[in-house]
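WARN no homologs supplied; continuing
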Amino acid sequence: MKNKLTDLNNHLFAQLERLSDEKLDADKIETECKRAESIVQVADQITANAELQLKAAKLFAEHGQAVLPMLPQIRSKSE
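OK structure emitted
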């Protein structure tokens, strides 16, 4: 899977377009609202993870190798 934050952005805008469809009846609006809530919950977790990765990268940039023992280890796909 090779999802990127730009893909998340596209999914969020697609959901916004579904929510603004004026042809939706009340049941479909409710279904789309529930879907939107789920998408937002997942999106929040994805962005929190990206923010954490950015913080780790900043720590490494500021402190170099000395900070590595304090950061989570990333395993390669072959492990």
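Residues 25-63 form one domain.
OK
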